[in-house]
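ugh ok fine here u go
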Amino acid sequence: MDNIVTLDSRQEAALHAIADKFIAQHKGDAVKALKEMIVLNGHLQDRLDALSSPRRATR
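structure:
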């Protein structure tokens, strides 16, 4: 992990509410929600990596 983020109590409460909503969308199955979050993060990381990699000239 490159960066540790510290949240204040307001941010922590907002994050908790979002997490509760995400788990509720998965019918209360926290493991299923976590697996989906890992997959989503992987897709986003792939997109970030593609954006930051040097582009090759196409001619």
